[in-house]
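User: I'm preparing a small set of examples for a lab meeting where we compare how different chains pack in three dimensions. I only have the primary sequence for this one, and I'd like the structure in token form so I can line it up with the others. Please keep the answer compact; I'll paste it straight into my notes.
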Amino acid sequence: MPMLVSVWKQEGETSGSVGWAGGLATSRERGRGVPVSIVTTGMLNDEIPYLAFGDGPPLVMAMGLTATHEVPTGWERRMVLRNAMPLSADFRVYVVNQKPGLRLGESMSEIAGYLIAAVEEEFGEPVLLTGTSTGGSVALQLAVDRPDLVRALVVVASAYRLGPRGRELQRELARLTRAGDAAGGWAQLMTAMLPTPLQRPTQPLIRRMVGSMAPDDPTDMLVTIDAEDAFDVGEQLHRISAPTLVIGGGKDAFYPRELFEQTAAGVQNGRAHIYPAWGHMRTSSSSTTRNISLGFLLAALRNTVV
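Assistant: Understood. Below is the structure token output for the 306-residue chain.
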């Protein structure tokens, strides 16, 4: 699923660009109650692109599906920081994309394996881990394959496998991209997350907006889509021992509600929080989701998750 991040605006925010590597977050991050932190970028273990900011125990946040496996830039970067910067008061936050240069046919376990190697090399200890949308698939795979590396897990708008409609939407994105119409593919995918009355009238606008998302080489995105199409760790969820929170929407186009609930029920110490009337986009981008995640992670640090 696509990387979707918050578009909320806090009182007191003003326009401005976000600082680049080593720069201070600017007025977009200085809204009331949002901590300001130095933002750095780089590659974990020379393979995993990241943005990092804040101070505290490491929190790794796996991004959703992106057109390229790079450090986010431009409007994408601004939205990522706006969503994640409030967590920097309590954690050293690493927003990570997936490894660039994936090989055709790589599985979700292999994709997660690059992040596993990065966590082992860079941190040398279990981390707090969150994943949104496709990032949730990567996070679940990591937690299944290496439960010893996860201190607590939050999965947002994701589950142990895609639902039928989710597979259909992502296959269409892949088909259109291979046919040379990546913008059309992204437009159909993103409008599917809007309320039905808005889908048709907004598609031309969204198509123009996402035109810049068409990469010269879409291999990484296509490999990830194919890997997620086959992804299913339902019978391995019992391996996940970390406290786990699954946050989902009852009207998510990619996952029926029962997949969120089954994911939470399948891990050793899991719970689900469902917004009955929310879809994929709202669940992924809401500041309420972020705040619930923050509370869960802080409780996990105190070993008092209830």
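A couple of notes for your slides: The chain has one domain: 27-301. Strands lie at 40-44, 48-54, 58-62, 92-96, 127-132, 150-156, 244-249, 270-275.

User: Perfect, thanks.
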